[in-house]
Amino acid sequence: MPYTYAFKIIVVGDAAVGKTSLVNRYVSGEFSPEYFPTIGTNITEKSLNIYEFTIKLAIWNIAGDKRPEEVDKAFYQNAHAAIVVFDVSKLDTFQHVDGWCRAANQMTTPTFYIVCNKTDTGTSAVDREGARKKADEYSARYFEVSAKDGNNVNELFNRVLMDILKRRLNELKARVA
Question: pTM for the whole thing?
Answer without folding.
Answer: 0.94
